[in-house]
């Protein structure tokens, strides 16, 4: 699957999340984050780049689901948390819009990433 197909698929999933029960969303996001940990580092970073691009297009998404993401992230073992965090940081560094992306992150996520305002 190429990057544009991945982005389209992810956007479709994101837009469907609102139709799910909040408890189901939490379970889905947690299992999705756990599965990402099994990916090769290069693929994980590529996926995080796509998520960063989505964040630029879906402005309310990160704020709506940030607590759900954090719950999923916090449920991971420390090693897996490190893998996710590294993938996100690499994706941010690769983005030409990194300052805009960082500005959109909720404070709780910035804190976990060690980003200070």
The biggest sheet amounts to:
none
C-alpha end-to-end distance: 37 Å
Instruction: Give the oligomer, counting copies of the same chain as homo and different chains as hetero.
Output: single chain
The portion of residues forming beta strands comes to: under 5%
What's the mean pLDDT score? 89
Q: Radius of gyration over alpha carbons?
A: 13 Å
Order of helices and strands: HHHHHHH
Low-confidence region ranges? none
Estimated structural class? mainly alpha
Bulk shape: globular
The helix count comes to: 7
Relative helix content: over 70%
Number of domains: 1
Number of strands: 0
Task: Lay out the secondary structure.
Layout: H1 3-17, H2 22-36, H3 41-57, H4 61-74, H5 78-94, H6 98-104, H7 107-113
Explain what you see:
This protein is mainly α. The protein has one domain (3-113). The chain is 79% helix and 0% strand. It has seven helices and no strands. The protein is globular.
List keywords for this structure.
7 helices, globular, mainly alpha, 117 residues
In short:
It contains seven helices and no strands. It is mostly helical and 117 residues long.
């Amino acid at each position: 699957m190429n990057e544009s197909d991945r982005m389209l698929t992810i956007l479709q999933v994101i837009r469907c999340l609102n139709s799910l029960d909040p408890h189901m969303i939490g379970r889905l996001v947690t299992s999705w984050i756990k599965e990402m940990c099994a990916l090769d580092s290069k693929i994980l970073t590529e996926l995080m780049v796509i998520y960063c691009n989505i964040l630029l297009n879906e402005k309310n998404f990160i704020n709506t689901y940030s607590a759900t993401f954090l719950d999923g992230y916090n449920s991971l073992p420390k090693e897996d948390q490190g893998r996710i965090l590294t993938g996100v940081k690499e994706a941010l560094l690769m983005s030409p819009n990194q300052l805009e992306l960082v500005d959109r992150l909720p404070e709780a996520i910035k804190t976990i990433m060690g980003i200070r305002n």
